[in-house]
Amino acid sequence: MSDLIFSDSFINGEFYKTATRFSVDDPATGKSIIEVSDIDEQGVNTAINAAKGAFVKLKATNATERSDTLMRWYELVIKHKQTLATLMTKEQGKPLKESLGEIDYGAGFIKWFAEQAKRSYGDVIPATDNQHRLTSYKQPIGVVAGITPWNFPVAMVTRKVAPAYAAGCSFILKPSEHTPLCAIALAYLADQAGFVKGAFNVLVSQNAKDVGKMLTDSEVVRKFTFTGSTEVGKQLLSQCAETIKKTSMELGGNAPFIIFDNADIDDAIDGLMAAKFRNSGQACVAANRIFIQRSIMDKVLNKLTSKVAGLKVANGFEDEVDIGPLIYPEAKQKVQQLINDALSKGASLIGEQRDLGGSFQNPVIVNNVTPEMNIYHQEVFGPVLSIIPFDDEAEVLALSNDVPYGLAAYFYSQNIKQIYRVSEALEFGMVGVNEGVISNPVAPFGGVKQSGLGREGGHQGLDEYLEEKYVCIKV
Ligand code: ADP
Questions:
Q1: Is 169 known to be catalytic?
Q2: Domain identity same for 348 and 393
Q3: How far is the CA of 241 from the centre of ligand 1 (A)?
Q4: Into how many domains does the chain fold?
Q5: What does the pLDDT look like over 380-417, one tens digit per residue?
């Protein structure tokens, strides 16, 4: 199909239709794009069996074959870049130029893991006597199940499925009910690329809780990988405890973005605009608490105010658009509640609140945010800059770290000693120094504390799908 729009789950290399259907809506217009099949219990079981059978077949493949297959998948995704990006803007809402960027970024994981497939080395361990030979090598963990969110409908899928296939694991994916179309298109292209049938199954469902429970309860599923909220992650982690599954959890964040008084201010503002407003602020690594050293506050705010005023909010298909709609109207209500709570507790608004209708939220700056306000503690997931003044390094480090999350942190400084000190002291899994966009398929993405477990991307991303086997031979 030329537009790559499919309406059914994808199991064992075939579409799986059910009678119960639900609508996938365009967040910009609120109108239905298509009605999709809602998976039934039989479908989930069929997918588990298909993945089990595919794992046996995958064992008969070698790393070079899997690498070649992944490379063909990569090429198909790039070939259909425009179509996939259009599909993404339709179901997710982000500006088309961001969707095009996500296709490159998401395809980058496929290419990286196609390369890494050939590099899952083991160890030869020097023995402690002359009678033994000790080795340790990597084997695929088996059937994997994964649940992904709606904010990056392609990249969140490829960063899980590509390393799993590279390792020799089969996959059952339940994408977000808001953005299943990109996931089905990816599975279709993987099949065209020559994936083993049943190695990449997509279950489309509106009933995440029950499908998730069937997957976590299954003895066949040996690994569970999730990207989403900390709240749901905790629940899934406890469900996985029953069968002691290996787990990866990419959960929420509350990223500090610190501008020290010695920073290059123009550079810092450019970094902040990217770290905050990409995907309308709907990213777990989005800058959430903006700490500005008091002595440069006025200068930064003046420049920031004019930049924010210049942002164009519109349907992601319009020219020169910077900010698309939020994913659904309730998301906008939540953002507005956070703004209103902050204003009622003493914060001030720079710019005006405009009602743009539908799920569109205009970008605003909320100044003088304090820890008493909900906006300080929650992921805003919207185009709102929460500004917090600080006086010195020790104070801002204490404030930055004083949250249960530890995903991404950013700071701008031109003092090399401060750069080392602060990057080492921040309790976060990822730190951007003089850079607001840090995600990269070649580097380990992940959090500490309640932001998650495990890493995606980098050479570490492959290990998440491998078990280590130690072999001791007496000679
Ligand atoms: P977000 O706020 O990004 O939607 P969620 O954690 O609610 O974050 O959703 C992320 C993914 O988790 C989605 O695919 C959603 O369908 C799924 N999900 C939500 N609740 C549950 C649950 N109780 N069990 C399993 N999956 C869930």
A1: no
A2: yes
A3: 18
A4: 2
A5: 999 999 999 999 999 999 999 999 999 999 999 999 99
β pairing state of 287-293 and 255-259: parallel
Q: Are 264 and 223 in a shared domain? A: no
CA distance 171 to 179: 18
**Given the residues 91, 98, 177, 250, the one annotated as active site:** 250
| pLDDT tens figures, 69-88 | 999 999 999 999 999 999 99
| CATH number of the CATH domain containing 392 | 3.40.309.10
Q: Are residues 466 and 430 in the same domain?
A: no
pLDDT at 39: 98
One domain, residues 188 and 273: no
Question: Residue 227 CA: which ligand 1 atom is closest?
Answer: 10
pLDDT digits (tens, 9 = 90+) for 15-58: 999 999 999 999 999 999 999 999 999 999 999 999 999 999 99
| 88, 227: one domain | yes
**Is the separation of the CB atoms in 185 and 157 below 8 Å?**
no
Domain limits for position 317: 255-440
pTM of the model: 0.98
Residue located nearest, by CA, to atom 27 of ligand 1 = 208
Provide the 10 A C-beta neighbour count for residue 475: 7
- DSSP 3-state percent helix, strand, coil across the chain (nearest 5): 40, 25, 35
